[in-house]
User: What shape does this take?
Amino acid sequence: MAFRVFDSRTDIQNLIIQPDIRARFLQMEPGEENVPHSHDLGAEIFLILDGQAEFVIEGHSEVLGPGQLCFADRDEIHVVRCVGDSTMTMYLSVTPHIDPTHTWWDENGAKLPPRYGGSTTSERAAMDAETPPPPITDLATAHAAAADAAAQAALSAAETQRAGISDLEQALAKGDQAAAEAAVDDMWAALYGSFSANRDLAAAWNALAPRVGRR
Assistant: This one.
């Protein structure tokens, strides 16, 4: 990703969109309120930059002002409302960013069917205007390949973890710190490959799901 500097006075938009994180600046006007929702996978951080906002997270309400931050964990239903008499500006980030990024609920507390791509609609439209999107079949094929790669990397990592734990236990029993460190390093190398493959799978899924699933 190219080095960029973002400014909350002008860049009221998504700033970063990748499987690890979606981050943006957001503004709301007095009285404006979003729809209560949660995230199946994502944990969300909110940092108020200007103005005031009332957050209700899992039924607990707090009013935050500039410099204050709050956090909604995965599966925690939350809503935000701009309070006071001035525009509220916040920074927010959701990690990870994997569709469906938002989970919606009906008035009876039942989870509604997933909707895909809502948080990145404008960015996809801009990209499609510049370069026609690939056929759905190509995206599906890429997703299947990424899923196979992630599965193989997970199996390999699991085998390495079992072997690494055995090596680690033997090293600890002998008091061999260097061997213990080497065992952990080998375990991490396999985990790194598995985590990277899962990131690639998330990217392939994020490319496919919004093109096919309900919005």
Q: What stands out?
A: The chain has a mean pLDDT of 97.
